[in-house]
User: What shape does this take?
Amino acid sequence: MTQLPFPLPILPSVLGTSAPQNAVTIRWLGTAGFEISAADTILLIDPYISRASFADCLLHPLESDLFEITRRTPRADAIFVGHTHFDHALDVPMIAKRTGAKVFGGTSAMNLCRGSLIAESKLINVERETGQAPYETDIGPFHIRFAPSAHSRFALGRVPFPGEIMDCDHVPMRTEKYRCGSVFRIEITVFGKTIVHLGSAELVERASPPNNIDLLLLCVAGWQSSERFPERVARALNPANVLLSHWDNFFKPLDQPAVMLPAMGVQKLCDRITSIATSSRVGAVPIFGEVTL
Ligand SMILES: [Zn+2]
Assistant: This one.
């Protein structure tokens, strides 16, 4: 197996003891992106395959890499968008077009897809008014709930690029046009197992999380800007396993081994989670590495 940058511990590839027909496979796509498959159904969360260079992010409107997308995410039944910064949402329209997958996300994600000429029948807006019950749905063997969440305020105490992608925005757009939009914690149950995706390092406790979380897909970038984040995650979620994500330098292409973003403080994050969630197993996998539940 490819080595991970120090000090990331490697998560074992088999986390559960399911019968083969009930196995759930979780593959990391880099950043906060995951492919989750069970039976014959494939879900994607925040898939960001194109990995624009830092120079492109500064200088040009961003475009999806059709070759890499066709190669890396050839199939999907549904795509979930946790929020609409470019490193979560840029490739969603292209993947939806290529695969025919439905897209589930907030108004900002819907506007991005409409601007990219995705058919209305493929778009499901999961946004709810405050106080309304979260959107829930079933896809194949999966049950999915979109709980309200928040973005870490890592840009000098603020959420970077706040606001929404508007229906008048034209694609392709520059980096700063990929506004955050509403943020969701995506909770998935399948074959009796529970997976939770936190695509940004912040937690909204009032939206009660599920019990008995088998696997937490946890964003690392920006965690130091969210007060007592590891302790709050450990207490509220108490996950059996934590797969660390969004620690990789996403300006580097996917065919190179992942390099850690600067100042991630991963060792401290792991130690502080496991000091409270004492039976949690915390680790990472290489890009395109898999774990099964
Ligand atoms: Zn973001």
About this structure: Helices lie at 54-59, 66-72, 86-89, 92-99, 107-115, 229-237, 266-276. The mean pLDDT is 95. The CA atoms of residues 55 and 124 lie 33 Å apart.
